[in-house]
Known about the structure:
With 244 residues, this protein is mainly alpha-helical. It has one domain (3-242). The protein is built from 12 helices and no strands. The radius of gyration is 17 Å and the shape is globular. The mean pLDDT is 95.
Amino acid sequence: MSNDQALAIIEASKEAVNTSGAQFYFDPATLATGKELGLDGFRWYVLGRGGVLGDVESPVVQSAFGYFSSGLINKIWGSAREVMAPRDAGTRYMECCADFGRAHLGDVEGLDAYNAAAEQVIAAADPAGLSLFAGIAAETKVEDATGRAMQNTAVLRELRGSAHLMAVLASGLSAAQAHAIKRPDDVQTFGHESVDVPADGEAMHDAAEALTSQMLVPAYAGLDEAAGTSIVDTSAAILASVTA
């Protein structure tokens, strides 16, 4: 498809992918698994999501997550990896992702086509600079369509999220400023006392969103029309199912 068509697919599916791909993070079943492993919800989230990076120091995780303060990530990551090896946590977290898909996507049609299209995008994406995407994309996926669809959605979410961090910085904002603009009520939750936002911060953030989508065009441009339609329609169906 043309670059304009690819961009239209990206824009039409971005909210569904972003929202759906995070739904398993604090799902009761995911939290229960973390509790069984000796990790509270937030530590399980940080260690599980960041565990695909390996047994690294906290600044590496903070750089990949972007929006959290270094002090908060240092505290949570440091204490969590004393409980469980990060790589093991990353793999187990992806299993929770698959379990969430199995529990919620059984009635969604077209998952095989969606998986094929999503995996085409993932394979075509240049991982340069996209560490969290590269890490989760390297995880082995399950074979069943429902679990695999949820895993693929999570990977697509990290693809845009990792690219967005680069776009934010290129647009002149810090990651903390971008977070404060998008989620002003969550600044302290992410470990920041306060964040000064430029007067034209909203416009700068809009520019970062547009640049993010442009950065993803090469990964989506190889899709044919049917695959592009599958990404849009099935991601919307997934969103409706996981948020019902």
